[in-house]
Amino acid sequence: MSCSSSSGSEEEEEGVDSYRKGGYHAVRVGDSFNGGRYIAQRKLGWGQFSTVWLAYDTRSASYVALKIQKSAPQFAQAALHEIEVLSAIAEGDPSTSKCVVRLVDQFKHTGPNGQHLCMVLEFLGDSLLRLTKYNRYKGLELNKVREICKCILIGLDYLHRELGIIHTDLKPENILLVSTIDPAKDPIRSGRAPILEKPKGYPNGGVTMNFIEKKLKRRARRAVVGISERRASVGGIGGNPMVERCLNGIDMRCKVVDFEMLVGQINSLKRKIQTMAYRSPAVYFAPGNTSLLNWSYLQSPSCYGGMIVTPSVGGTRGHLMKTLDYMVGEGSEGREVEGADGAEDVREGRQEP
């Protein structure tokens, strides 16, 4: 779960069922946190452990990303570990020049679903995954690739060499640009005034209707986009060829985020790590080797327009066979492996336990 303008799942909502005891805290625009210091502006995203909101810091008159953890004990424990890691990162980088997300504050918030640990992080922009989609899965210009790679490697070098920390889940979703692609989504560049109190007439009830309305609107937008793309692809009536998007003016500086899956110091790393689609061969044979994250960053389609090894069904066996095929020069597409065990992990981008 990251702190971007488009983090978390970009396709679906988290679901009403997760708003219960031990689950998410229901947030409404204008809600205040930590004694009124932070005011919720809009939701940025969500993940398995938390939701993230754009918030206005009334003390510093700036915008931040407010990450609100689920209240169940296992999620609270994960949050404490993440806070410990983020605190160490911030302490060693007072100038914020190491290309890793900065922790601003942390506190507890009590609501109807329990006590939630909250992290206040610097507000960042869109993920490399969103940039890839915006650029229609085409490779970037070399100067932009260099800028992105420079920032990622600075961040990894700081984590590995200076702190002895291994990220374990480096992927395009967890690399965020320092600003949004669309200026209208940036709370400062858009020129919109912050919301300092709950809008009049705002419902006092739950979140059910809000989810239903969002889902219906999202389906309608997808249907319109799908029809337009099909028309464009066949040259039908009203179908215009896709205009190449200009990336000039987009700041390509970026930061490494999301330390929920971090497992500890390099020497204590024992289990399989990384999301399946980005998993390095070294994970299977030398899991304590920090160079395995270099594979993850080379697997990113953001810079090159495609992955080194494309994900497929077959779970661990299928992924490893395709990776070995690529390494021994038998083709980047690899062999198809019968069976679909682990296919869901590939499609959903989940980590294998």
From TrEMBL:
<dbReference type="GO" id="GO:0005524">
    <property type="term" value="F:ATP binding"/>
</dbReference>
<feature type="compositionally biased region" description="Basic and acidic residues">
    <location>
        <begin position="332"/>
        <end position="353"/>
    </location>
</feature>
<dbReference type="InterPro" id="IPR011009">
    <property type="entry name" value="Kinase-like_dom_sf"/>
</dbReference>
<keyword id="KW-0067">ATP-binding</keyword>
<dbReference type="InterPro" id="IPR017441">
    <property type="entry name" value="Protein_kinase_ATP_BS"/>
</dbReference>
<keyword id="KW-0723">Serine/threonine-protein kinase</keyword>
<comment type="similarity">
    <text>Belongs to the protein kinase superfamily.</text>
</comment>
<dbReference type="GO" id="GO:0050684">
    <property type="term" value="P:regulation of mRNA processing"/>
</dbReference>
<dbReference type="InterPro" id="IPR000719">
    <property type="entry name" value="Prot_kinase_dom"/>
</dbReference>
<feature type="domain" description="Protein kinase">
    <location>
        <begin position="38"/>
        <end position="353"/>
    </location>
</feature>
<feature type="region of interest" description="Disordered">
    <location>
        <begin position="331"/>
        <end position="353"/>
    </location>
</feature>
<keyword id="KW-0418">Kinase</keyword>
<protein>
    <recommendedName>
        <fullName>non-specific serine/threonine protein kinase</fullName>
        <ecNumber>2.7.11.1</ecNumber>
    </recommendedName>
</protein>
<feature type="binding site">
    <location>
        <position position="67"/>
    </location>
    <ligand>
        <name>ATP</name>
    </ligand>
</feature>
<dbReference type="Pfam" id="PF00069">
    <property type="entry name" value="Pkinase"/>
</dbReference>
<dbReference type="InterPro" id="IPR051334">
    <property type="entry name" value="SRPK"/>
</dbReference>
<keyword id="KW-0547">Nucleotide-binding</keyword>
<dbReference type="InterPro" id="IPR008271">
    <property type="entry name" value="Ser/Thr_kinase_AS"/>
</dbReference>
<dbReference type="GO" id="GO:0000245">
    <property type="term" value="P:spliceosomal complex assembly"/>
</dbReference>
<keyword id="KW-0808">Transferase</keyword>
<dbReference type="GO" id="GO:0004674">
    <property type="term" value="F:protein serine/threonine kinase activity"/>
</dbReference>
